[in-house]
Design goal:
Elements (H helix, E strand, L loop, with lengths): L1 H7 L7 H16 L3 H13 L7 H13 L3 H13 L7 H13 L3 H13 L7 H13 L3 H13 L7 H13 L3 H13 L7 H13 L3 H13 L7 H13 L3 H13 L7 H11 L4 H11 L4 H18 L3
Helix pairs in contact: 1-3, 2-3, 3-4, 4-5, 5-6, 6-7, 7-8, 8-9, 9-10, 10-11, 11-12, 12-13, 13-14, 14-15, 15-16, 16-17, 16-18
Length: 321
């Protein structure tokens, strides 16, 4: 993504006619055989800048530049194959092109190749090999790789588990603005894993990731307000964050909203609304189904009917992730 944005930076902010002229100049140089401009042209087609968006044309121009051994285009082509964008989805081809770009030292490609090894996508899973590629990219300052490396150290995947090292890598990535790392660092700070407990700092990092729209961080921040950990207890604020996370179809937030509505935490006590949230969460968690059924035994037939109607509305809006 960073490479794609960088390649298009020269055309953004211009008038429409100026952007189109930039497209024409880029295409002229691309046709002449310039791999840099072929890659740039692919980005313009991919983003619809100066020309109608055309993912097939984007992939074709990435392919031309990639075959000329231009690393940014190799990485871009790998992304196309991984996502099935402009070409058929092909994890093995994605690995092939990620590897070529990674061997040129492109940190984004090194991180992507590491992720393929981690997940066994397009290649046999190999946690040790994944860590090796994450390490290369992380050492080059790639924040996503730093976050991935932190995960490996935290969970002992491909390396001996080392919570202190995990926190160190999460912190590097968090400072660089990686939102998953900010959330993970906050979780470590909250639990005292690999670092002394510091709920106040944890909340600071949760807020950063939550404000960027990360649902897990929004739910975690809501829980901090619910418990009064690192912040003054505020049930209404907890519900606000749980609601933001739930709107992004985050099941744990559905459970938390069910609890709040059942007990009147930050919202009026409402067993009908609680039932509806438990029912929605039951599609993801068995314990939620048990909680829903336990609540139903305490409800009148009219309340159950209203709750089931409300549950259908929630499921229609949020039930598919």
């Amino acid at each position: 993504m960073a490479l794609m944005l960088a390649a298009s930076a020269g055309v953004e902010g211009k008038s429409l006619s100026g952007i189109h002229q930039e497209f024409l100049r880029t295409k002229l140089e691309a046709v002449k055989g310039s791999p840099e401009n072929q890659h740039r042209l692919g980005v313009l087609y991919e983003r619809g800048l100066g020309v109608a968006k055309d993912e097939v044309a984007a992939a074709e121009w990435f392919q031309r530049a990639a075959e000329l051994d231009y690393a940014p285009a190799q990485y871009a082509l790998g992304r196309c194959y991984r996502a099935g964008r402009g070409v058929a989805n092909d994890p093995e081809q994605a690995v092939k092109w990620f590897r070529k770009a990674a061997e040129h030292g492109l940190a984004d490609a090194q991180n992507s190749l590491g992720f393929c090894y981690q997940m066994g996508s397009g290649i046999a899973a190999n946690p040790v090999e994944a860590v090796g590629w994450f390490q290369k990219a992380a050492d080059a300052g790639n924040a996503a790789a730093q976050n991935n490396l932190g995960y490996c150290y935290k969970n002992g995947q491909g390396v001996v588990a080392d919570p202190v090292a995990a926190v160190a890598w999460y912190r590097k990535a968090a400072i660089a603005g990686n939102h998953p790392a900010q959330n993970s660092l906050a979780e470590c700070l909250q639990a005292g894993l690999g670092t002394p407990k510091n709920p106040i700092e944890a909340v600071t990092w949760y807020k950063s990731a939550a404000a960027a729209g990360m649902p897990e961080a929004q739910d975690n921040l809501g829980f901090c307000y619910f418990l009064g950990q690192g912040v003054e207890r505020d049930y209404a604020e907890a519900v606000r964050w749980f609601t933001l996370a739930s709107d992004q179809k985050f099941p744990r937030a559905w459970v938390n909203l069910a609890i709040c509505h059942a007990n009147g935490y930050g919202v009026p006590k409402d067993v009908v609304e609680s039932y509806a949230w438990w029912n929605l969460a039951s599609t993801e968690m068995e314990r939620a189904a048990r909680a829903r059924d336990d609540l139903e035994r305490l409800m009148s037939p009219a309340q159950v009917a209203a709750a089931q109607k409300r549950a259908r509305k929630l499921k229609n809006r949020l039930g598919s992730r």
